[in-house]
Amino acid sequence: MNRNNILITGASSGLGYTMALLYAQQGKNLALCARRTERLEELKSQLLAINSDIKVEVYALDVNDHDKVFEVFEQAKADFGSLDRVIVNAGMGKGASIGTGYFHANLQTAQTNFVAAIAQCEAAMGIFRQQNAGHLVTISSISAVRGFRRALTVYAATKSGLTSLTEGIRIDVMNTPIKVSCIHPGFIKSEINEKVEKVPFMVDTETGCKAILNAIEKEKANAFVPSWPWAVLHRILRMAPDSWIRKMS
Ligand SMILES: NC(=O)c1ccc[n+]([C@@H]2O[C@H](COP(=O)([O-])OP(=O)(O)OC[C@H]3O[C@@H](n4cnc5c(N)ncnc54)[C@H](OP(=O)(O)O)[C@@H]3O)[C@@H](O)[C@H]2O)c1
């Protein structure tokens, strides 16, 4: 399927930024959203240097401003004529063990990764239903498959919620031209994990994003990427005793 007009949230760094670079090489038109617009402007210049034939627009967007999510997605649809794929990627990983006084950080993660994802999915699906076409992609995480402790407790819960949300949307539009995919990345180098020590099976951003783009292209319901080791490990993680999970985080 030729998905030419692609909107990415959280495009100012990490996975969103690198996905945009890879999509520019493929000749895709890009609608890029984030709060740090100076980074998006710099990215836009890079993308047009890679491929001057593509159209790139940047939009200031805090995904926690839900009205703005709808406004920006509609604006992007108007600017590009149609939206073929929306990648719900904006996310964060602040937080700490529940009951240790970091409620505000945990709440911010919950709002950004889950509540704001509902707004982004709602806005994207409204457009796709109107078009009777489109591909919704959510960027969940390998951590969606189990509960994890400490800083990952709320983060993993938001990603589990996002995976479930994506599944519900997919079942809703089954047998229609609208496709819905949930990507579960393992550990890929980016700002979100730059301060984390001892991360297993970490890959560089480009390797990770190439695996993500390949998985997105297949338009399957769920993908665990890079497939080695995560396509196997996610099954083991689901069954592992709590004591193993405790040692891991
Ligand atoms: N890297 C990994 O290993 C990994 C693994 C699994 C899942 N993921 C998921 O992949 C996604 C991208 O993460 P990343 O690794 O690329 O991290 P990152 O480098 O920290 O990038 C996060 C992006 O999200 C945007 N963002 C955060 N809060 C936002 C808000 N309130 N409004 C709008 N945009 C916001 C940031 O843009 P601004 O700050 O400019 O707004 C930034 O562009 C996240 O959903 C993350 O959970 C990452």
From TrEMBL:
Protein's recorded name: Short-chain dehydrogenase
Organism encoding this protein: Thalassotalea loyana
Domain of life: Bacteria
Family: Belongs to the short-chain dehydrogenases/reductases (SDR) family.
Keywords: Oxidoreductase
Entry-linked PROSITE patterns: ADH_SHORT
